[in-house]
Design brief:
Layout (H helix, E strand, L loop, with lengths): L4 E6 L3 H11 L4 E7 L16 E2 L2 H5 L6 E4 L6 H11 L3 E5 L6 H9 L1 H4 L1 H4 E4 L6 H12 L8 E7 L6 H8 L2 H16 L1 E11 L4 E10 L2 E10 L6 E8 L4 E6 L4 E6 L2 E6 L7 H14 L9 H11 L10
Parallel strand pairs: 1-2, 1-4, 2-3, 4-5, 5-6, 7-10
Antiparallel strand pairs: 7-11, 8-9, 9-10, 11-12, 12-13, 13-14
Bound molecules: nicotinamide-adenine-dinucleotide.
């Protein structure tokens, strides 16, 4: 990305606030412009307001950013990635999920030769950077004697029951929104290979999916539950190492974890509560992206593999 990064921020909704908060503390970054058709004014960034536009196309008529960040509704990502690739030489960080359907993934792939999609497009798989996820991945790496991960259960609940319309407009369905977070988290621990069963329930407000994976030479299954039918957020993942009798529990809401074997506590992870959860995800994500060698979990190839798994689930209302 070079020594300095001029960033164009597209979409100024909920998650853009976290991007801007984290970027403001990156000394090598400047905010070149913002773009959002529904916001008349740009936000204050380091005490000043950047030039603001009603569209990415208008902004690219005036600016040459090094990095374009797309924090817009999921079903706008593909068109905006294509615009960014065709109208600028910038790299692109798209919010997750990269695309909302497989046709959009094929469209991006078809541009690779012309526009270096694989070198320029990154996806903000932010959950993979959450501190408890990185801690659990370190535990795995440090304890080969635990053997393979023989089972995983993950449950992601978001309190969108009363905000259903807005949540559907921005995130499409609970599985579209959270399934990709669960799959990118799994990818820190095991190699996800196939969605062996998948049901979107409650008109897309919930889902139940089963993902097969490989871990240390054996095949295991991950049970993935997502739902918006709750008044509060709660997200947890449990990893079982059946051969060693070890379990690792991580709480993504509290950013905590522990490992135990039967009644014996083996390891714990906690935090001092000073870093808000989303900042704790996006700060290391940006440090990695802005470094010379971004983490592979941000790459187009990872996004493409996860998209294919993610979209093996039939759309809501198809009765499977
Ligand atoms: N909210 C979260 O906690 C969160 C966390 C991680 C990732 N995400 C992802 O980030 C994306 C955005 O989510 P959000 O919660 O910020 O949504 P949001 O609805 O709060 O904000 C989206 C913003 O994009 C703007 N917009 C719409 N079309 C646009 C266009 N063509 N060009 C420029 N701006 C446009 C809207 O006016 C709105 O201000 C989604 O893909 C979501 O999955 C959200």
């Amino acid at each position: 990305m070079g020594d300095l990064a001029r960033v164009g921020m597209v979409g100024l909704g909920v998650i853009a606030k976290t991007h801007l908060e984290v970027l403001a503390h990156q000394p090598r970054v400047s905010l070149e412009f913002t773009a959002d058709p529904h916001r008349p004014e740009p936000p204050v960034f380091r005490g000043a307001r950047p030039p603001h536009y009603g569209s990415l196309a208008a902004a690219l008529g005036e600016h040459r950013p090094d990095l374009i960040v797309l924090a817009t509704p999921t079903d706008t990502h593909a068109d905006l990635v294509v615009q960014a690739l065709e109208r600028s030489p910038a790299r692109v960080l798209a919010e997750k999920p990269l695309v909302h359907d497989l046709a959009s993934l094929a469209r991006l792939r078809s541009l690779d030769e012309k526009a270096d999609v694989r070198g320029r497009v990154f996806t903000a798989h932010h959950f993979a950077f959450s501190p408890e996820v990185r801690w659990a991945a370190e535990q795995l790496a440090e304890h080969p004697e635990w053997g393979p991960v023989t089972g995983i259960t993950s449950a992601f609940y978001d309190p969108y029951v009363l905000l259903r319309e807005k949540a559907s407009a921005s995130y499409l369905s609970s599985w579209t929104d959270s399934g990709v977070n669960q799959l990118s988290t799994l990818a820190r621990f095991v190699e996800p290979t196939a969605l062996t069963s998948a049901r979107q329930l409650d008109d897309g407000a919930s889902a139940w999916c089963v993902c097969e994976y490989r871990s240390r030479g054996t095949v295991g299954t991950a049970r993935l539950r997502t739902s918006w039918l709750t008044g509060s957020s709660s997200k947890e993942t449990a990893l079982v190492f059946g051969e060693a009798g070890v379990e690792v529990w991580i709480d993504h809401t509290a950013m905590t974890g522990f490992a135990a074997r039967g009644g014996e506590l083996l390891a714990t992870y906690g935090n001092d509560g000073r870093t808000p959860r989303k900042v704790a995800h996006y700060r290391p994500l940006y440090e990695s992206l802005l470094s010379g060698s971004p983490d592979p979990v941000l790459s187009f190839d990872t996004a493409a593999a996860l998209t294919e798994l993610h979209h093996a689930a039939p759309p809501p209302g198809t009765g499977r």
